[in-house]
Amino acid sequence: MSERWNPDDPGVLRLPSGRLVRGRALRHPLPADAPAATYAVYLLGKQPPQVPWPADWLRWPDFRLPSDRGRARELLAGAWERAAGERVEIACGGGRGRTGTALACLAVLDGVPADEAVDFVRRHYDRHAVETPWQRRYVRRFTGPAGPP
């Protein structure tokens, strides 16, 4: 499958490998002409609304960390894998804290050193991404599917 984002579209982050991932705020509706995701991970404290594409929900309350960190690693690693040829979307309510944290974790999976991943996402996605000290610490400790945070 080779359905990729347009790298110039709003919210699209290009990882060093060339993978493209769209981050967005769920509280803002998609423009009518925006392409649909082929897979999404929604980071919310409550179950997200239904969407017409495959999606997973990761319970992640606002301004906090994922409720199940093992599942977070699995879903983020799967999203990173799928982003090689699919339109993967990562989204939370505001599109900054949780989404930025998840995008920084994808950057770590893509080879960005963990202590540089937050800055990478702030430079290439949103300068306010990753909102809390514990979210920054989570990214610094993120190692992917097999390791801690």
What are the low-pLDDT stretches, counting only 5+ consecutive residues below 50? none
How would you sum up the global shape?
Answer: globular
In this structure, how is the largest beta sheet organized? Answer: 5 strands, mixed
How many β-strands, per DSSP?
A: 5
Give the topology.
Elements: E1 12-14, E2 20-25, E3 39-44, E4 55-59, H1 69-82, E5 88-92, H2 97-109, H3 117-124, H4 133-141
Parallel strand pairs: 2-5, 3-4, 3-5
Antiparallel strand pairs: 1-2
Helix pairs in contact: 1-2, 2-3, 2-4
Task: For this entry, give a set of tags.
149 residues; alpha/beta; five-stranded mixed sheet; single chain
Would you give an account of this structure?
The protein is globular, with a radius of gyration of 14 Å. Strand 1 (12-14) and strand 2 (20-25) form a beta hairpin. The mean pLDDT is 93. The termini are far apart. It has 149 residues and is of the alpha/beta class. Helix 1 packs across helix 2 (97-109), helix 2 packs across helix 3 and helix 2 packs parallel to helix 4. It is built from 4 helices and 5 strands.
Brief rundown of the structure:
By secondary structure, the chain is of the alpha/beta class. It has helices at 69-82, 97-109, 117-124, 133-141; strands at residues 12-14, 20-25, 39-44, 55-59, 88-92. Strand 1 (12-14) and strand 2 (20-25) form a beta hairpin.
